[in-house]
């Protein structure tokens, strides 16, 4: 009996090894929060028996034996320690127009590419034996087709799955063919709501067009140039985008402005929300003893609180002091949101924090700093689960009044609990869904049915801009001709009349 169980177990473990695929996971976005999001997916795949090689800017000690981190070292330092770079100062980025922010973002992507290519980690992967096979490549796509293109080229183009911790669906345009609906959805860097006036929509159209042109004419050629320095014979790097079978973005329709998705874009919003770890003892004690509730203050993992400046910090402390009964915690620790005594979350409105607050049903006061943080808080305000304040000038009185309103008016908590219920009400956990779709690609490595033809035909045709240009030109020519002919006829009559008169005279 024992023996047969042993044989069975042995058989199972062999089956797991055989079924386990060899997966390359590229996590090259220089942002801690993006790694926080990728982490559960890396481990989730490993838990299913896959052999995951994570080529990543951040690595972890003591991973399971089928997770192999290879670090692309020095990229964070190169990008954020450069005092001249706007990317090292999120507050100055917050003052930019969407044009500036979109450009700065593309520049950030190019920098991630440039410094990752220089890393020893990248060289290590490129030195893998020529016959080494990966069954699948997963790329955190936000920084574009750079390291992923090099890897796909080296390992004979295995199928590609794209993932992102971001919720801007239009960022999947180059590989899923997604649409930027300028009349409906504000660009992900645009501080606007769905109720855009005509002027907003004109600007939104320009932002979306600018973003597209930046990618096509600046980012991709630049990345191609950088990769080509290492691998001269590689095909144009942006063409590797077309290998993407499915895209898994951090999107959930219930918790953001709604917009249509392409069929191979599978929303896995909130996959980072895993069962929360038990709190450290001291925090647990503080949380348990706060009978009148706790308010959490956090600006996330990218913006350090010390960059706030004394004036802002004093204003925040001043506001906190006027609620002596309430326990305030100033900390980056989203696990606290799960505690029943947590009442309110004062946040920079980063996507992961916002999603976690919604998951746990905690209403928000948002201090958006830059980029998508505006749209996160704008959505939350719209559905009545949050109030928004300005980080540029923090006014203690205004903050006091806002905290008071949020703590006394039950509607925010009620709305948030309803939103939370809808966010959680899914057939499977977002992480399980992500893993299922990745395995779907492993099971169907050659299937391209879900991919949109939009990727092939490109932006101009897909949006029918060529047709619009043709119609515009046709209308312009026709009106020109009509006006010209009418004018001539009118002139002839007029002149003819004159001539007649002249003769008579
Ligand atoms: C698992 O990944 C590691 C690191 O890339 C590699 O050295 C090893 O050969 C892989 N194992 C299998 C069974 O493919
Ligand atoms: C609570 O807040 C909601 C949303 O701002 C508002 O409509 C409602 O009137 C407020 N209720 C009270 C009692 O102030």
From TrEMBL:
The gene is 6030817. Residues 1-20 form the signal peptide. This is Glucosyl/glucuronosyl transferase. Belongs to the UDP-glycosyltransferase family. Pfam families: UDPGT (PF00201). Keywords: Glycosyltransferase, Membrane, Signal, Transferase, Transmembrane, Transmembrane helix. The chain crosses the membrane at residues 467-490. One of its GO terms (molecular function) is UDP-glycosyltransferase activity. It comes from Culex quinquefasciatus (Southern house mosquito).
């Amino acid at each position: 009996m024992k023996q047969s169980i042993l044989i069975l177990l042995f058989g199972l473990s062999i089956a797991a090894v055989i079924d386990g695929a060899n997966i390359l996971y590229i996590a090259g976005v220089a942002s801690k929060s993006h790694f926080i999001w990728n982490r559960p997916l890396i481990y989730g795949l490993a838990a299913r028996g896959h052999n995951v090689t994570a080529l990543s800017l951040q690595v972890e000690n003591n991973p399971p034996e089928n997770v192999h981190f290879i670090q692309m070292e020095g990229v964070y330092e190169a990008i954020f320690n450069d005092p001249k770079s706007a990317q090292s100062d999120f507050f100055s980025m917050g003052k930019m127009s969407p044009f500036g922010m979109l450009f700065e973002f593309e520049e950030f992507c190019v920098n991630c590419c440039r410094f990752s290519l220089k890393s020893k980690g990248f060289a290590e992967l490129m030195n893998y034996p020529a016959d080494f096979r990966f069954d699948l490549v997963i790329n955190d796509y936000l920084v574009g087709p750079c390291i992923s293109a090099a890897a796909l080229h080296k390992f004979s183009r295995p199928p590609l799955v794209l993932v992102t911790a971001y919720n801007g669906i239009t960022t999947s345009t180059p590989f899923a063919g997604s649409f930027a609906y300028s009349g409906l959805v504000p660009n992900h860097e645009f501080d606007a709501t769905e109720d855009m006036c005509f002027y907003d929509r004109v600007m939104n159209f320009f932002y979306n067009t600018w973003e597209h042109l930046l990618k096509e004419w600046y980012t991709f050629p630049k990345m191609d140039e950088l990769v080509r320095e290492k691998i001269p014979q590689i095909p144009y790097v942006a063409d590797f985008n077309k290998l993407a079978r499915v895209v898994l973005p951090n999107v959930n329709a219930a918790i953001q402005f709604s917009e249509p998705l392409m069929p191979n874009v599978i929303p896995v919003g909130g996959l980072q929300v895993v069962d929360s770890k038990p709190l450290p003892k001291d925090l647990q004690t503080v949380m348990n003893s706060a009978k009148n509730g706790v308010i959490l203050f956090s600006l996330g993992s990218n913006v350090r609180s010390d960059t706030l400046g004394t004036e802002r910090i004093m204003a925040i402390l001043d506001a906190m002091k006027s609620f002596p009964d309430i326990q305030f915690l100033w900390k980056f620790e989203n696990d606290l949101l799960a505690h029943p005594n947590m009442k309110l979350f004062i946040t920079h409105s980063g996507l992961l924090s916002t999603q976690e607050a919604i998951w746990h049903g905690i209403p928000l006061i948002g201090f958006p700093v830059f980029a998508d943080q505006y749209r996160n808080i704008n959505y939350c305000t719209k559905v009545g689960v949050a109030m928004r304040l300005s980080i540029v000038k923090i006014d203690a009185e205004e903050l006091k009044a806002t905290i008071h309103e949020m703590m006394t008016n039950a509607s925010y908590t009620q709305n948030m609990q309803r939103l939370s219920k809808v966010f959680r009400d899914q057939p499977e956990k977002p992480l399980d869904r992500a893993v299922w779709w990745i395995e779907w690609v492993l099971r169907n490595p050659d299937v391209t049915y879900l991919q949109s033809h939009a990727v092939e035909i490109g932006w101009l045709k897909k949006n029918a801009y060529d047709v619009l240009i043709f119609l515009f030109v046709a209308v312009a020519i026709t009106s020109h001709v009509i006006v010209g002919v009418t004018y001539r006829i009118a002139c002839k009559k007029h002149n003819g009349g004159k001539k007649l008169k002249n003769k008579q005279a």
